[in-house]
Automatic annotation (TrEMBL):
PANTHER family reported in the protein's UniProt record: ABC TRANSPORTER PERMEASE PROTEIN MG189-RELATED-RELATED (PTHR43744), LACTOSE TRANSPORT SYSTEM PERMEASE PROTEIN LACG (PTHR43744:SF3)
Protein name per Swiss-Prot or TrEMBL: ABC superfamily ATP binding cassette transporter, membrane protein
Transmembrane segments annotated in the record for this chain: 59-78, 90-111, 123-145, 166-191, 224-245
Subcellular location: Cell membrane
One Gene Ontology CC term in the entry: plasma membrane
Domain ABC transmembrane type-1: 55-245
Family annotation (InterPro entries): MetI-like (IPR000515), MetI-like_sf (IPR035906)
Primary location group: membrane
Source species, domain of life: Bacteria
């Protein structure tokens, strides 16, 4: 009960505040209801904040990044799980070391690489940064791969399928549950990412939803109700996606061999 209240109250504060005027927001309690329900804050946030442009760019980054991340992560996990080769342990150790190094310490080098590649101030800069798979995703895929019998691979191989066909036709269809899990875990981070788009895509035409909200903070103050309205607009799509996909997270792999 306490945990639910901790999670719900901040969202409730944001929702109530989005319907207030700036003066009313600053002079009233955070949970006090607005005197008049006014949707002008939502119109201001959507139009002046260029939310439509932000959603378009965010959608492109999200789809391309997650498609690449899921494909690369599942392929890497398949290779690690099914095959023995030299430097296998070293590669996994390097992934672990990379996780232990704070990302902020490598930002100068990362920026120079992106700039030398000619990707600065393009949408591909953030996409390339997101495409790198992570150890958590790999371990999630490997855990589910343990539940897929090797006999399926062997049967397909005897029927004339090569390793790529086995991966695309047998392994991938059985990895739907971990893919949805990673889609939610990594997808929320990509959807909410502010730092990378702000640093690598400063062009106003390359706004994402997180940098679009930042536009309402100016040198003469901050219009909090408009920002809160923008936050609600941003929350709704990812909330709907989560509600639609959450049932797949806990689904295991069953009945792969009859």
């Amino acid at each position: 009960m306490l945990g639910a209240l901790v999670a719900i109250i901040p969202i409730l504060v944001v929702f109530i505040g989005s319907f207030k005027s700036n003066n009313e927001f600053l002079s009233s309690g955070v949970l006090s209801l607005p005197k008049h329900i006014d949707f002008s804050n939502y119109k201001t946030a959507f139009v002046n904040g260029q939310m439509l442009v932000g959603f378009k760019n965010t959608f492109i980054i999200f789809v391309v990044s997650m498609a690449g991340k899921l494909l690369l992560g599942s392929a890497f996990a398949y290779a690690i799980n099914r095959f023995d080769f030299k430097l296998k342990k070293l590669i996994m150790a390097l992934f672990m070391v990379a996780m232990l190094i704070p990302a902020i310490t490598s930002q100068v080098a990362t920026f120079q690489i992106i700039n030398k590649m000619g990707l600065f101030n393009t949408i591909w800069s953030v996409i390339v940064l997101n495409l790198g798979t992570d150890v958590i995703s790999i371990y999630i895929f490997m855990q589910f791969l343990e539940e897929i019998p090797v006999s399926l691979d062997e049967s397909a191989f005897l029927d004339g399928a090569n390793y790529f066909q086995i991966f695309y036709k047998i392994i991938l269809p059985n990895l739907k549950a971990p893919m949805v899990t990673i889609l939610i875990i990594s997808g929320v981070n990509i959807y909410n990412d502010f730092y990378n788009p702000f640093l690598y895509m400063p062009d106003s035409n390359l706004k994402v939803i997180s940098t679009a909200l930042f536009a309402f903070k100016g040198p003469y103050g901050t219009n909090w109700p408009v920002i809160l309205a923008g936050v609600i607009i941003v929350i709704i799509p990812i909330l709907l996606v989560f509600l639609f996909l959450q049932k797949y997270i806990y689904n295991g792999i069953a009945g792969s061999v009859k």
